[in-house]
Amino acid sequence: MARKKKGEPVHGWLVLDKPEGVTSTQAVGICRRIFNAQKAGHGGTLDPLASGILPLAFGEATKTVGYVMEADKDYVFTIRWGSSTTTQDREGEVTATSGIRPGQAAIENALAGFIGEIDQVPPQYSAIKVNGERAYDLARDGEKVELASRRVILHRAELADCPSPDLAVIKVTCGKGFYIRALVRDIAAVLGTEGHVAALRRTRVGAFAEDAAIPLSKLEGMSDKAALDDTLVPLETALDDIPALAVTGEEASRLRQGREIVLLPHQVEAFREMRRPRQVNGEDASRICLATETVGGEQLGVALGEVRAGRFMPVRVFNQ
Fold first, then answer.
1. Beta bridge partners of 102
2. Of 17, 47, 89, 186, which residue is the catalytic one?
3. Start-end ranges of CATH 3.30.2350.10 in the chain?
């Protein structure tokens, strides 16, 4: 006899505004208890030092986490010039100092050199695994690890403010796997000085932005289930840029059973027009499409599947 799952079947995404000093894992645990949810996860780690958008998935929404992890992200952060640290943020021990304070024009010129696809070496204090161990665990034990550079993309970078000679506030839009701490390290190197992250806030992850974010402190003060449920957004929100095809109730039932359906010529043509290159979890996802069904006037996700040879073959089925 199958063991009954603890909690309730909660489904959807929570756009959490994570405070500083809380890890992403801790945030998931706290919110899972608040919602009494059977299953929960997050759509991309946010450093304990950082605040801002941490998308949390509940129930069936956890099946869409991979798509959120691939999404572009917006950050605003502050560089403190004059010292570098072990962790490349304000929590680490100082490793080097400099009296050089770059001016606005120099900072802007340096930023311009990082826009586009670049090779970036992750920080020593990162969650990357080295021989089965996290790099930050090895770093805390005093081991120096040589991490390989990774190809990442920086779409936009602008200097927002220089409140003092010691500080620079920068806004960026970047792709998956991009480290702000590494960018700060590299900018300082180009400018011939030292620097570290003094403050960091994530303001967007894909379709999840600040205007829909709920502070953790507000959630902790809520006890009404209906009010809590109203803070969730549909799992389909995470798939806003995935090609979508409407299916009938009969087709939806077939897909939920894990069976493929035959598409009409106009559906295949519509998918071809919407299709674009896409990678999810390191695999080609350019053929992935979302099948939706109209229920009570709303479009609900039925399944993610591959469109091949005029057929829709489900690979992830949603049971909302």
1. none
2. 47
3. 12-71+207-236, 73-205
